[in-house]
Amino acid sequence: MNETVLKKRKFQMTLLFLGVIVLTYLSAWITDYGFISSLEAVPGAMAWMASNLLVNGEALGKLPDIMDKLIETIFMSIAATTIAAALSLFLAIMGSKTTMVNRAFGTFSRFVASLSRNIPVVAWSLILLLSFGQNSVTGFLALFVGTVGFLTRAFIETIDEAALGSVEALRATGATYWQIVSKAVVPQGLPQMVSWVLFMIETNIRSATLVGILTGTGIGYMFDMYYKTMNYEVVALITITIVLAVILIELLSTRIRKVIL
Amino acid sequence: MQQITQQPSVIRHTRAGKINIRSGNRVSLVLRSTLWALGALTVLAFFFFDYTGFRPLQAIPETLYNLKAMFLEPKLSHFGWGEAAMQVAITLGLGALATVFGAVFAFFLALGAAENLSVPWLSKSIRVVVAFVRAVPTVLWVLIFAIAAGLGSEAAVLGMLFHSVAYLVKAFSEAFEEVDPKILEALRSTGAGWWQTVVHGVVPSTFTYLLSWTFLRFEINFSVAVAMGAAAGAGGIGFELFMASGFYFDLREVGMITYMILAIAIVLEIFSTRLKSRVYSAD
């Protein structure tokens, strides 16, 4: 590294930082964001949380109802993720350059994945709500559609990383396409894919809360209802149950991941 | 990424004397039971659903009709193009603010959380707090801040900030932990203090990673900002989407807004993929 390289690097860094500062001010101006007022709001918000988000006996009486909805939400996320994983596996095998049947199928499956991934889950839930109505199936479908896109991208990367050598080896022995897929691609990529599925289940439980608020289903609906009626004791209890559920699932999947990867 | 290591096992024979090629080890046992459990839970899930007002025979053709109206005849009717661009800019702005502030906070917290730069008790306690913050869905943070700090961009940014910090601390501290210990040792042996090791050793060797993670978070924060607009009334294009579908039932407008969000999301994704591949090809 000589002096000019260092100088150029320093110049680039300065430019980057200036750019970020300008961007921040511009964003603050557009969104009408007050730096000072937001700093002032933090201690007040913390104090408010400490004094209002307390679970009392009356709120605990609602626990059976909350658990009911929480279990429904967890099941919704697991079902959406698992079924999406099955479809994603198919799309990924079609879309990966290693195992692609032909170009048209490959492009098509990557296009489907990109569309489902880049339209936010909010948009999907609002679109589906219009015709499917206010029930679990709407939430399930919204999560399902968003998950397919994400998992297909992850699975394609997994297949590309894991399977290249063994696919070539099997092809050399004269194995058919389905033999290659079932004996090399799937077993090789399976641990990584299961790890992605577990990650997606965790993410989906959190997204399910958001989807629930929008579509009026599951734990999200319950939260929204008590939030709007300003029953903050129950709001606190619901938040705690969600946190416990997410952390429990995270711990479980960390243990599984440790063994399989 | 991860190499699958074949564990050496004793060759087992079936009763007929053939080599048992299915003889499982712990890995395949756990893998198989995870898959079975997921399958069983999925089947079970459909018994727990609430099917109020679910009429598939009516809903499916209706959805197809709606999708056709949305995506083939998109049109703005309640606001013009200038207003739409402004709303998109607000959403982008919310995402950018949460990302920039998040990256700054996360940088310092990640220094405390990285095991090679910090003391065990500090790194452990930061990790526990971060795990807790991550477990609360963003929308709940935003809604809680909205009561405490009043509805507006402040509540939205603060709520999104919590998750961004938690996400980036995890990513950043993992990047810091992968810094070559020789670099740190070399700097320490010259008598460099802790800050000097960070500024001259850790930051230059991880900077591109930090940048690529931050941009990835911006990509995520854009869709989070859309969600917050719709679910928490934080403004921006997400709020317009919510109004178009929930209040006006204007499918064509929903379609147009979805197209706008899609276009921006794809541009951001392409940009972040480019950035990531540049980072990985650099080393």
pLDDT below 50 for ≥5 consecutive residues: which ranges of chain A?
A: none
Integer count of domains of chain A: 2
Query: What is the CA-CA span between the terminal residues of chain A?
Result: 40 Å
Shape of chain B: globular
The largest sheet of chain B, given as strand count, sense and whether it forms a barrel, is:
none
Question: For the terminal residues of chain B, how far apart are their CA atoms?
Answer: 15 Å
CATH homologous superfamily classification of chain B: MetI-like
> In total, how many domains does the architecture of chain B comprise?
1
**CATH class term of the largest domain in chain A:** Mainly Alpha
Question: Radius of gyration of chain A, Cα only, in angstroms?
Answer: 24 Å
Taken as a percent bin, the fraction of beta residues of chain B is: under 5%
Please estimate the helix content of chain A: over 70%
H/I helix tally of chain B: 10
CATH homologous superfamily (4th level) name of the largest domain in chain A: MetI-like
Question: What's the CATH C level of chain B?
Answer: Mainly Alpha
